Amino acid sequence: MILTAFRQPWLGDQLKPGMAAAVSGKVEFDYGYKRMTNPYIEALEGGGEDFHGMILPVHPLTGAIKAGMMRRLVLNALVAGVIDPLPLPLRTKYRLMSRNQALSCIHFPHSMEEQAQARRRLAYEEVLLLQLMLMQDGDARSNGKQPVAHVIDGARVKALRDAVPFELTGEQVKARDDILAHMAAPKAANHMLLGDVGTGKTIVAAFALASAADSNGQAFFMAPTEILARQHFASLGPILEKSGVRSAVLTGSTPSDEKKSIVAGFGDGIIDVLFGTHALLEPDVQARNCTLAVIDEQQRFGVEQRAALLEKGTCPDALFLTATPIPRTLALALFGNLTLSYLKERPRATAPRKTFLHTFNDKGEAYDAARAACARGEQVYVVCPLVGEKRPEEPKNKKNKGLEEEEAYEFDSIAIEDESDMTGANARAAEDEAAFLQAKVFPDYRVGLVHGKLPAAKKQEVMADFRSGEIDVLVATTVIEVGVDVPNATVMIVEDADRFGLSQLHQLRGRVGRGELPGEVHLVSGTRKESALERLSAMERTDDGFELASYDLSLRREGDILGNRQHGASLLKLVNIVRDGAIIEAAHDDAAAIIADDPLLESSQYRPLAREARVVYRHAEELSGG
Questions:
Q1: 285 and 379 in a common domain
Q2: Are residues 228 and 372 in the same domain?
Q3: For 500, how many CA atoms within 13 A lie in the half-sphere containing its CB?
């Protein structure tokens, strides 16, 4: 057999004529010879009979440690044995190997079926320990404190039901009842409401706000951007007012005199609900009796920011909202300490919305669609990533450039914008883009610009002009990803769409087709790389955010779906969120039962689990920098 090894010159020093070697790889018949290309090769000290048909582990190597030495080190470590933290009833319930056997079989299996069973045991253990850690962490918030058992059938909740100008969907009713049931319990609620774009999460959250007011409490409602905070106040404020719930909005741009009045009113209990941005976290913003904290788009806030809001009450209930479609298995893995509700159906029949994928060469088709919309009196979004450096200039003689060179233009970064993360250079690039579109593409229409670096008053002015129709084409960064509702906006163009995650693109396209007019979304990819185009083509195939998120999850690391690494996800070394859904569900339910039976894991059967969970928790803290 001929072995061909590319870029491995050291093999010439390791392998000598007459030496026995074990090889593993794909055998091909080429030019009359059997051949392996770049196989796994290991020099043998003995005759090598024991290696025939053997399943060899592939261990990460470092320094001068070779594969054979690493196997011997692992084998010696396994001889000592380990304590099994899983109670015997759980091992029996799922027919799981002992930990000692699982570690041995995952490193040195006799068959691939044995290896699969070892991975199954260790994956279950990983998830169970993570769930125990998260659930204990969530319960710790109410240790030594007296949570509020909210009134859920009070006058304001009943009045809100009559004040809502439409009928709630079945999913909204179920989510509302789930949230209120958790608020009524004599323990701190930690609930997450996950809803696809346009499914009506905020009106469900309104019932939680009314319940807090009925219980002589107050509520914070924090959103990541001023645009979104004011949108929530504008939509919910009048409905809450009809129900007897007094509300106000506080942001960084609120005039000082108005801010003093709002802060005083909230501190005295005159205001029941305070909407706002990060301004709610300022030390002087205090409630008389905060019993509920609602955090919208919670993944956009840091752990410390979320904790700071919850500390403004003695032991308030927490309700987290997110429009990022997170599959249930991923949500359990990341947020095992939270109870979950899902909204997938839209409360009203919306106009049809189509998505089209373009490369840079046929970008003109997207502009044609946008100009046609403007000619009909409709409005257009043009979304630019503009986070990080700008894409390099296209080569002048592009027709002679091959695909390999064009692939160099692809960016792997995912653009997730907060209001404060845009550098001056990026802002100038956005202004240049708006000027180019006004001069070259939309000379007969009015082009506006909004991005995170604009002063708050200017952003409000631009958005008001867009809503009123004074602006035909709005050039924007991802600051318009959530909370912007302009029914007359029917076309969206996303520049450099390959730089966005699918879930974020789905949220962006939720800005069009919100009225009776059909919507169009044109994704312009700056690369023709096949893998990038295949990923973006999923946007053409489905309008279901959760289906997109599952597909996105199959392509990327679990922690990256939300745009940042979650310390929980980083602990799952063997678990695949898509493939191991049943394991995650089972481990979550088992952890919940264990915590209900023994919250502190003090009994003899759970003591090994408690010790192991502490080790896992310390590891998580080190990974997250905590």
A1: no
A2: no
A3: 27
| Relative orientation angle of helices 226-242 and 456-468, to the nearest 10 degrees | 70
Distance of CA 613 to the CA centre of its chain: 25
| Encoded amino acid at 123, one letter | A
Same domain membership, residue 301 and residue 172: yes
Count other Cβ atoms within 10 Å, centred on residue 282. 14
Residue of 495, 448, 491 whose CA lies nearest to 473: 448
Question: Which region, left, alpha or beta, applies to residue 322 given φ > 0 means left and ψ of -120 to 50 means alpha?
Answer: beta
Residues 6+ apart with CB under 8 A from 33: 1, 2
Phi-psi region of 553 (alpha: psi -120 to 50; beta: other; left: phi over 0): alpha
Token reading at 421: 């993360």
CA neighbor of 494 nearest in space, from 508, 474, 507? 508
The amino acid sitting at 163 is: A
Does the residue 134 lie in any domain?
no
Tell whether pTM > 0.70. Answer: yes
Q: Domain with 431 in it: what CATH number? A: 3.40.50.300
Lookup result for tokens 């020099």: 43
In a domain, 106, yes or no: no
> DSSP character for 597?
H
Residues 209 and 311 in one domain: yes
Position 11, amino acid: L
Phi, psi of 284 (to 5 degrees): -80, -10
Per-residue pLDDT tens over the stretch 411-455: 222 333 333 333 444 566 678 889 999 999 999 999 999 887 788
Type of residue numbered 552 = D
Q: Are strands 40-43 and 21-24 parallel, antiparallel or unpaired?
A: antiparallel
The percentage of residues in the chain with a pLDDT greater than 70, rounded to a whole number, is: 86
DSSP structure class, residue 444:
T
